[in-house]
Amino acid sequence: MRDQVEITYVTPLSGAFTKPKATDALEHLLQEKNIHIESDFAIERVDNENKKIIDYGGREIAFDLLVTVPTNKGDELIGRSGMGDDLNYVPTHKATLQAKNYNNIFVLGDASDIPASKAGSVAHFEAEILTGNILHFINKEPLKEEFDGHANCFIETGNGKALLIDFNYTHEPVEGSFPFAGIGPLSLLKENRMNHMGKLAFRWIYWNVLLKGTHIPFVSATMSEKGRNYEEITEH
Ligand SMILES: Cc1cc2nc3c(=O)[nH]c(=O)nc-3n(C[C@H](O)[C@H](O)[C@H](O)COP(=O)(O)OP(=O)(O)OC[C@H]3O[C@@H](n4cnc5c(N)ncnc54)[C@H](O)[C@@H]3O)c2cc1C
Predict the structure, then answer these.
(1) Domain range 2-62, CATH class
(2) pLDDT given for residue 225 in this prediction
(3) Atom of ligand 1 nearest to the CA of 110
(4) Whose CA is nearest to atom 13 of ligand 1?
């Protein structure tokens, strides 16, 4: 029934993906799937009676079925503890992962306010640096400013294909090979079957390697620039 259904993807961002480079490279996927994009739409309210959503500028979009993603927030527990910001995230130093207001607390994963993706890979990469810094703190040694915002995500695109993106605080995702420079076998920012196979293989790696805490030698906590055409981004 797909040909009888219109899908509109409405986002407060200027494109379909959080990273402009990814939007440039991947927006065609939405066109191929006949998904219409409405960007720069900061929703103000839902008018369920008249079946439309309205943004702060008064722009309206009609719907039959609305699927919304609420604002991503930290846990209320953090709010109640007084440690959080307005969104219940713990203000955290983005390179050392030490809480800004409590020097004996270190934060990783979705609980922190660092400008990295809220993703499993980020929590995983942070863990290595956080563990080291807790030990440095206990031993009264200087903390290492090592975390670079590294994120690495598969994006399933359907029909047995997937994308893989790799980026950090200062580098937009672009094309290249992963995890081995020039060899791959996975391709960055490209939709293909091999990436989907990589995603399926990752399921096994997750349960049998990552959860056991086994170190994967060729995937580092910080981002590798080898074999990739990364472009620096200036931080705001
Ligand atoms: C629908 C969905 C899809 C996602 N897909 C992906 C994906 O494809 N790839 C990816 O990389 N990431 C994905 N993510 C993001 C990823 O799951 C999170 O970034 C990651 O789980 C964060 O890990 P965390 O340990 O910080 O928090 P969590 O995994 O949320 O762990 C927090 C834990 O604390 C427990 N807890 C909470 N309050 C208390 C309390 N008071 N006492 C004791 N325990 C408590 C919770 O039960 C939970 O087990 C997805 C997230 C969602 C919601």
Answers:
(1) alpha beta
(2) 57
(3) 26
(4) 119
Q: Determine the Cα angle at 66 with ends 65 and 71, to 5°.
A: 165
**Contact by Cβ (8 Å): 185, 230:** no
Establish whether residue 111 lines the binding site of ligand 1, counting it when its CB lies within 6 angstroms of any ligand atom: yes
| pTM given for the model | 0.85
DSSP letters, 173-233, are --SEEEEETTTEEEEET--BHHHHHHHHHHHHHIIIIITTT---TTS-SSPP-TTB---B-
Q: What DSSP string runs through 129-147?
A: HHHHHHHHHHTTPPPP---
Domain spans in the chain, listed from the N-terminal domain onward: 2-62, 76-138, 148-236
d(CA 167, CA 84): 27
What pLDDT was estimated at residue 195?
93
In short, whether 79's Cβ falls inside 6 Å of ligand 1 is no
| 153 in Cβ contact with 119 (< 8 Å) | yes
Check: CB of residue 111 under 8 Å from CB of residue 89. Answer: yes
Instruction: Note the pLDDT of residue 165.
Output: 87
